[in-house]
Amino acid sequence: MVGGPDERLPDHDAPDPGRPRRAAVPEPAEGRRARPPRARLDVAGRTRALYENVFKPALVAAGLPVSASATEDALVVRGVRLHDPRHSFTVLSLSAGEHYMMVSKWLGHANFTITLNVYGNYIPKDECGKAHPVTRPPSSRTPHGRPGPV
Hints:
By secondary structure, the protein is mainly alpha-helical. Among the domains are: 50-81, no CATH class; 83-135, no CATH class. The protein contains four helices and no strands. It has helices spanning 43-62, 84-95, 100-107, 112-119. α3 (100-107) packs across α4 (112-119).
C-alpha cells in the first residue's frame, strides 16, 4: 500500500545524486563588505511606514486630527486617513467640472467606469463633466496640411 504507515517518506534535506548542485554564492572581493539581504516589506508594512514617517507628522504640523486608539483616559480618535486626501482631490476636481476621464487617468483607475461608479454623484448634472472637455493637443500643421514653423 502506497503511503502506508510502514513506508518512509524521502528525506528532502539529503542531497540527490541525480540533481545538479546549487552554485555557491561568491564571496565579496577583498576589502568589500557583503551587502546585507534586503528585507521585503509587504504592502501593509510599507503603508504603515508611510503613515508613521510622512503622513502622521504632516497631519500634526497642519493641526489636523491623527487617529489614536482608545486608552483608559481617552476615547478612540478617528483622524484623517491616508486615502482621504485622494477622495477629497477627486470630489473637488469633479465638482469643479474637470472631465471624469481625465480624473480617472490621474487616479490611475483601470477604466473610467470605476471613477463614474464611485464618484458619479459629484459630477454636476447640468454639465455632465463637460465644463473642461478633453481636447486634442494643438497641431503644428497649418490649415493646408503643411508643417508649420517650429
